[in-house]
Structures
1.
Amino acid sequence: MDRTAWVLSETELRAWLQSLIAGERTVVAPVAEDGMVVYRPLAAAERAVLEPRGKARWSPKEFLFPRTEALYSYSFKGDAVTITDPPPPERPQVLFGVRSCDAAGLARLDEVFLSGRTDPLYAARRESTTVVTAGCAAADPECFCTAVGGSPLGEEAADLQLVPLDDGWLLRVLTLRGDELIGEAAAGWSAAPAGSGERVAALEREVAAQIGRNPVPQEWARVLEGGFASASWDRLAAHCLGCSICAYVCPSCSCFDMNHDANAWCGEQCRSWDACTFVPFTLHASGHNPRATRGERYRQRVLHKFAFTADGEAHFRCVGCGRCVALCPAGLDISQIVTAAAAAIQEEGADAAR
Amino acid sequence: MSDLATSAVRHAGAAAVPDGWQPQIVALVCNWCTYAGADMAGTTRLEYPATVRMVRFPCTGRMSPLMILRAFEQGADGVLVSGCHPGDCHYVQGNLVARRRFTIFRSLMDFLGIDLRRLHFAWVSAAEGHKWARVVKDVSAAVSAAGPLPRPLATDGWEGPVLPAAEGEGPREIPAADSVALRDHLRRTAVELLESGRVGVVIGHRRGSLPGRLVPVMAATAAECRELEWGEGAVNNLVTYAATALKGAEKAALVVKACELHALTGLIREGQIARERLLLVGLQCPGVRPEGGLAAKCLGCSGAPHPACDLLLTPEGVREGGSEAPAAANDDARDRQIAHLESLPADERWLYWQRQFARCLRCYACRAVCPLCYCSTCVADKHRPQWVPTTIDARGNGIWNVIRAMHLAGRCTGCDECARVCPADIRLDLINRKLALEVERQFGAAGLDPGEKAALVDFRMEDPEEFIL
């Protein structure tokens, strides 16, 4: 039997999902809540929102990099101090029906938390996570994955991939871990017919054609970094209001702040999400702030997504999900700003050369 | 409502009470009256339940709702606030301002589904040792009856209440040809204002990158003015940008919808902006559609430009405005939704808000877009002490959302920007509107007059205080 791809009806897909929920893993999937779609641990398969298009309000990164987590907790009793490590993840988890851009975001988080000095909390969760992506059959107006090297049917960080077809879903195995997740469930499924690969490629071209934004060339990373001192940043960021929607809905933003949540008897050392667009993000205890202006703060965000890469990384940290574009209160569009910044910097360079 | 929902609600209402449980009550007391009163109770050997832990403050006027919220967050089952009788304040009026604040805070907590048996206020003077003992007994009994503070509950699968639809006619539609005429008037006016030197910058809207969405622009050149747009996508309240624009210009023209004018009144009243530095351009408004549908705030609005604007733009042409007519408040289509929430059992309201606050990402977009949120350092960013926990969970989220609402009580002018931008779809508009209604009910109409003080920094000797022990 071919153990690489099947075609599943909606009923078969939901039945499999239900069996996963009944199994040993926590299944996280998009669900509807108060009129919006968010990723939640799933209690019943029918609650999952599995659509050929559209995405959850924010990425599923919080299931690997929680909004807030205790790194350790402590308590005092007399002179004795007890320090306790956080418990390891209780159950392995499946991220089910995440978009390709969301999965690509996990790969970006891996680069931060698993390369060099490994973050043990992130690593433990990542190790016990299986990712089942659901590709897109149509692009939303804010989408631009193809402009930053991604694809609506991208395979990065996916263990299994669901491809929406007119008559159900194509389920493709991409890793051993994905194959393990399927286990014996495939017994009654029909193998994908020959030519499925071409159908997927055709769908990929079709969706990519709907994305109107121009590709961001890889060499702009250097251009942007070279334009660190450009005067254009203040102008480009003039309308930024300094919230952190962009960073918190972003699949790849990984910055955090450390804080104590404590009383006189016990407490926790927590790390919580933080964002470069906030004024206190870089505020020193002395009162000095090295990123004192809106332009400097927004520049950090753009450069961290499109420049500042570690050696050997040949991709942007932006995965092109477009959530920040859709949700920005001031309507800032990072893909347009990158284009405008690169143009302004090249212009300034040309002026200087003259 | 599903069975799941009913059971979740029942669970919230009937938390199991452990054997021998005694309530833990935090009492925030003023130094001059109640603390001395409690001392008097001690020296006269009066007995009262040992359920209260006292924290001494200089004055009830110093007691921010933050302190009450922190007490609950740290596990208190109830909070008692007590200070001098009206007229006895060591600082003349601290307790009178505090009384208004408590009145509003109490109704907010009720709206959010907090059992009011947990929250008490009392006037106890230095001579009233007996009253202190009685108050502690009464409060202790009330908190005991309410039981242990309910912990956050999973609301997964709960369908939640179905709020009645916000209904209203909204502004009259602007035909396509008129829209073009209106836009052209706007562009021409903006260019003239800029080129004549009357203003240094025009704050308006331009086309954004998403279909139908306009974005703010501070246009400083004629070319930028020629790209100004107007229409249903003009969602942003541009008053938020006024202070920024005025840093680089002596005078700014501001494109303003009637609903946003109140925000400007608020800023003028609070000394944040000088009216003469702004030139207000009011346009016939088709209503805004942030997510396809007409915004709730538009349902009761005619869309006519407000006569207080300096220039009034309609498809027919440009007129001088500048009348003194006060801004009239619209009927609010959401009042029915608020009434519906108030008709639900408190436990259900608690679940309703708890689920929304649980989604809060603490992105502070609500603060960033609010024209009235102008503090140079927000209380949420202060960390000595850290009154608002930075943890993005039940600990910090509830406190943030409550204190944000409290800081805007009596000041919020209902532009709904916070609710529009909230990525977690928290109905901040309902909370703000509820508090506006409450301020109006308790202390009279929220003044739209720039000369008037905001309700919560003002007081009257005869302010209502039925709830105070």
Note: Chain B has two domains: 23-165+334-469, 176-320.
2.
Amino acid sequence: MALLRITTPVDEATIRSLNVGDTVSITGRLYTGRDAVHHRIHEGTRPPVDLNGAILYHCGPVMVKEGDQWICKAAGPTTSSREEPYQHEVIRDYGLRGVIGKGGMGEKTLAACKQYGAVYLHAIGGAAQVCAASIKRVDGVDWMDLGSPEAIWHLWVEDFMAIVTMDAHGRSLHKEVFEASRERLEALKA
Amino acid sequence: MTATAPLHEVTKEPALFESILELIRRTSTILPDDVVRAVTAARKNEAEGSNADVALNVIGCNIGLAKESSLPLCQDTGTILFFVHTPVGYDQLEFEETATEAVRAATKKGYLRQNSVDSITGKNTGDNTGPGSPVFHFHQWREPHVEVKLMLKGGGCENMNAQYSLPDPKLGGRDLKGVENAILDCILNAQGQGCGPGILGVCIGGDRGTGYAYAKEQLLRELDDTNSDPLLADLEKRVVEKANQSGIGPMGFGGNTTLLACKIGTQNRLPASYFVSIAYMCWAYRRRGAQLDLNGQVTEWLY
């Protein structure tokens, strides 16, 4: 298992060099985007930020405003499978190079990763304080009308850790674990 | 009285307000001891340096960080579920109003995320109140004091809940074998999406509504207790053993820890119905409680 450092925005060659099982440490800008953001983009609205080479974080953080500054109180990943109907086209249309979330995604997203050069990065679900510790600043926010958890937060992260579970070579750890566990549980049936 | 009760209503019960606010803070930031023990023990079952081991290590660090900094363990502070027992004649409406005010205050302080959204317009109320939130389950009892238990159940794990109706051609008939296969099917479908290693609350029987409610109530049991019904105790043990042989592992990364516990209860059913309702709880199993005197002062913390 290799530890690889990535800075955002990230180029296609770097992303294509990653493999399932690699641990990455990300430094730079991350944008959050989850259910309502994907739905709105799918309905035809252009994202208000440049996603070219960007990594999108499936996350609805706890944010509190202290004076003029937003403070991130907790920021772990949310379940990514809900974005499965939309993620492929966001990768295709806006040059996204990675998404961070939890639980993995399906065939459509895996195909987009392979075709356009992107990866799925798995953060540890529920570990909101470990994730928040690597968020050094909140630089801005868009689409606040969607409510704080659904808004696009501009986060500056240093050494944000995640594990590659879907790569640009067509491999998905989630698919492999699902198939293997289905066989095992079938054999264990009462 | 609606959720928009003015603040002076609260000052009638300042002790109760402070007690509930502290209960919310503790629940959101400090994992109960029984859960910490289970998560810690799980690590020795995983190969050192494996993804499963890394996940459990990060989870361990997170538990410590949240407690030290008094910040939410998980950003999804979930559905806010109060389970309350009160003496006969106690004013439950006043409790509900005061606890709702405490929820508003806890949201402002960042112990809770703004988590209450209008289902049609998508508008977030911003303070965790609105139709159906927070949730109160009141019961009367003949004890002289109030008991309040609070559970914060995140959306990721709530989405993995499942309800089966037996018989089912793939799962089996109306017996404990059918129940066991239904539970294992739920685990297969959940994979890592509910933030495993998970804890299951299960209800056999009831109707579709009461089945789910009772399944959640099973999650109020301590993880290391033993079911008083030997048949169910045996089933709980078997489900955990089989789930942990599935290879799904923490976060669905693969590994030997898929479930930390399974708690099963029963409700009577109609002759025509046989529901198995499963509440999937994530590892960040936030539940705490307190006994209160009639003035709202905490006399004992639970869990």
Note: The first strand of chain B starts at residue 79 and ends at 87.
